[in-house]
Amino acid sequence: MAEPKEKVVPVFIEEEMRNSYIDYSMSVIIARALPDVRDGLKPVHRRVLYGMLDLGLRPTSSYKKSARIVGEVLGKYHPHGDAAVYDAMVRMVQDFSLRYPLVDGQGNFGSIDGDSPAAMRYTEAKLASIAEEVVRDLEKETVDFVANFDDTLQEPSVLPSLLPTLLINGAAGIAVGMATNIPPHNLSEVVDALTALIDKADLKPEALRAFVKGPDFPTGAVIYGGEGIDEYFKTGRGKLTVRAKAHVEDMSGGRQRIVVTEIPYQVNKVALIERVSALAREKKLDGISETRDESDREGMRIVFELRREVDAAAILKEMYKHTQMQTTFGVILLALVNGQPKVLNLKQMLVEFLNFRHEIILRRTRFELDKAEKRAHILEGLKIALDNIDEIVALIRKSRDVDTARTNLIKRFKLSEIQAQAILDMRLQRLTGLERKKIEQEYLELIKLIEKLKSLLASKSLRMQLVKEELLAVKLKYGDSRRTQIIADTGKKSFDALMAEEEMVITISHKGKIRRYSLEEFQSLDEGIKTGEVHDFVESIFTSTNSHSILFFSQKGRCYSLRTSFVPLASNAENGATLTKLLNLENDERAVSYVELAKFDEKQSIFLTTKQGLVKKVALGEFAKIKDKGVVAIGLKSNDELVSASIINGKGEAMLATARGKAIRFPGEDVRDMGLAASGIKGMNLEKDDVVVGMISILHQDSAILSVTSLGYGKRSPVGEYSTIGRGGKGIVNYKVSQKVGEIVGILEAQEGDQILLITKKGKQKRFKAKDIKVMGRASQGSAIANIAQGDAVAKIKNFPKLIIGKKK
Predict the structure, then answer these.
(1) 122: annotated active-site residue
(2) Least enclosed by CB within 10 Å: which of 1, 71, 658, 805?
(3) Are 147 and 259 members of one domain?
């Protein structure tokens, strides 16, 4: 038999190449390079998250090897190279790549220095807590499932994300003939914009600037100028100038240094430092004498020391011009809409997400209604069975087999086949009175649920209200303050603002947790300051700037130094970092006093006071170069402790107060400056069993000395009543202590408008104004200022700064 001739179909090569290239380009666009506008994910990221969910790697589960996860995704859903899958997963772990990482990794997943992640056989991962919001309700038929690459399994075509992932984490991808570059944004701001659009759908794109300030990069930095933001809000395209956050610090000898604490998004820190160093060697950045990376786990700090008489502002301008300390971020809001690539403005992107969430709510409601109605149908049958239990038992006993019993139940009681089977499956324990009550209660609750679900299906406004409620719940749970600062481009003034020191608020809790807030963020706190623990509370608050330092003094007489820029941001540390960790304190060591400094002024000194009445002055410059392990600020005997450390000027006066009600006031000049290891000299001659409880540096002659006792009594006595005498005396009466009022626990210099914070040993707090405490003579017992519960006692008193707390401006 002759073989059939091959059929040859002639085609034009131009047409074949065009069709093949179009097929290839659409495959790249849809299946690889561009994110979906709905869940904000590319196929590989979606498959990684679904594969991890398939493996049971929930946030509460244990970690699994990354190689296991990659193998799962490759074998079931993503038939490409393992490097592509692992790289995608690594990026979802990195907190410097994603504003809100979706994968919780354990091991080396790379660094902002450009270090490569460890091989997948070494690292482990599971879903991050926030990723629960991306896969929530997946099992409720909220999205369509499609066949995988070999038609053996089903995978979701999109994830039912409650997070506006595309905007909060951004995306970047190069397809064929097009590219996307979406910057990350702040979750709280995006949710505010979404809820505003639900309330008022006709908002214009530019009006969204009231809610979304602009991009919010995970690495912080500064966006210089707002024109690019306005442009991409309106058109979906724009150019942003992103600059490193830097400030200038003074050094000894009249020199300065430039300190960089945040760098632009996607900039390699090591490459940036090497570039600056190379330009300095080539004299293109003439004036930089030394470059040093002081970054650690608590924050970034790159130091560029300058030679004497070099203009720091001019050097910084050149650094922005010639290095990646300034970059351009080209925004292109391109995403897949119904499978087609489309450039959207910000409002269109938000509307697409809202439409998606509405569809998810609609499908979820239908699923839950169907499930509730099926369950209610079964419960109706069970109720019939319980009402006729004797007859049903007899009917079943007479039946030859299960099928006959089922048929007889259906005929006799007009049941459905499902109800009849449920009765046959019912266990004998359901016949008890308690179980019967449970069935009736469940039925009533289901009827209410069915009514609620039906009302949801009947009203779009109710569904959109539910969308809004769920978004606000996500904001409450995962929202944080923005990291990227936006400065309007108005010439030299804005450049000065860029270099200006950032004002911040530092809080320290009773248990030693320390945080920093921007002043704007602190003043907008809706619910006050949270410490993260039920029995902890904030007991110290003060303002500072990012170039200042804080000296901490422990009861053991040691001093530790900490840059305020190294204090963790409240948004980056859920429970704050502890002083024990930051300062390397010993287990039994605690900070009893702190001093906030703009610079180490050689004309000032630190005045130290111990419990046994010793005093000492140390020139401030002695603390300028403290190492990580701290230094000895005063040599103490085994029975002594440091009580207080504060700054005193050359002609300042010191006042010491004791627990038994004595006080001494003497000129600071009576104590000469000493070396760090010295033990100090006698400041006050104490009576037996008496101890010093506090020291103040008198700043205002018209103020009053506030004294508070352990049982909640207190008074103010005019400073003028305390005569100045020589150092080392027994002092004069400050307070008439007794069993009724207790002993003195602390003193403060108080003016009329000061706010005073009183803290008890059991953690109770009371805040009041100084003017509300009576002015009385030195020898009086004072009056009750706080009710102290039996078994409790006042532990300390503090001046509270005059800040707006818990109220918006």
Answers:
(1) yes
(2) 1
(3) no
